[in-house]
Amino acid sequence: MDFVHDQLAMGKKLRILTIVDTHSRFCPAADPRFTYRGEDVVQPLERVCACTGYPRTIRVDNGSEFISRDLDLWAYANDVTLDFSRPGKPTDNGFIEAFNSKLRAECLNAHWFLSLADAREKLEDWPRYYNEVRPHSAIGYNVPIALQNPGGAASTSP
Known about the structure:
3-stranded antiparallel β-sheet; single chain; alpha+beta
């Protein structure tokens, strides 16, 4: 889990919470908002986990949203370990940094977001493409949905 930063066409800053399964490369959510607090991280996590189940561990950096009491309580209540990267070491979470680079190149740099609603719509479409159409070399040129749902079921994106 991490954040990507962008801005709307009118210049307002936008933060995008990205959630990715490092095994399957499946991205269940890319959640844009103007600001985030700990409780704002818990909401999309709970929505994702209701569909896919709770992970054993979530790798996060030391941002204030991730070291919040809200996320800590959610993790404790759901038996999830928060694995914090070392401060100032984004390479500790290199996979999400690589994912965020792909999101930037393939989606954020390709679109102007006119409003938060417009950003949400476009950021709902891109993970579907990423999960169901775009092959990934790290998983044998398969699509993430094939590893996430081996039976070939349709998207589980919330």
